[in-house]
Amino acid sequence: METTKATGRIIRPAHLALANLAWRDETRPNLHGVYLSPTHAVATDGACMGIVDVAPESATLPEAPALIPCILEADDAKRIAKAIPGKANDELRQFVVDVEKTNSNGRLHGHTLDDRFQEMPQVAGKVDGAGFPDWRQVVPSAEPTAVFAMDAALLVKVLQTAIKCHGKGTKAVVKVEVYGEGMPVKITGRTEDGDAMTFVVMPCRM
What we know:
The chain is α+β, with helices and mostly antiparallel strands.
């Protein structure tokens, strides 16, 4: 089992945002949340997965014990994310875990800071991280056949439009066609009436 170095743990908004990809309810508690390990935050619903690295500077408080990997329940992750000031410096945009308390019982303890730097205690549900699947086995490790950069918001816009065109009756399945680095990406599918639909997304530079 993984453990962190003997430091405290700071969870950033990007780590908490992964709760959107977690299993939808508590029928699978090992997937209904954000897995926190020494090096990554991970969430999956079995169909898609999100991984956010933990930067070295996210480990502070050298006097704290090691954080045992655990799963922060999805609903609590979303609640804590809302408690973090939306427009603030990096010092405010964080959830600081009380590692000693978290390791010693079945809850995750810590605090956020309000815009006056006052500590706001946070207590969240947690699940033993040992039940989380080995996510590294799912991530492709071979050389990719093509690499391209896209505006995430633009991609979301196209996919949301594809879903609306398809209708609510069945799952909207699209095909993504890649023609090479620097080339537009074509996304095709069918509308709810069976008509062909095509979307072209332009690449961008990283």
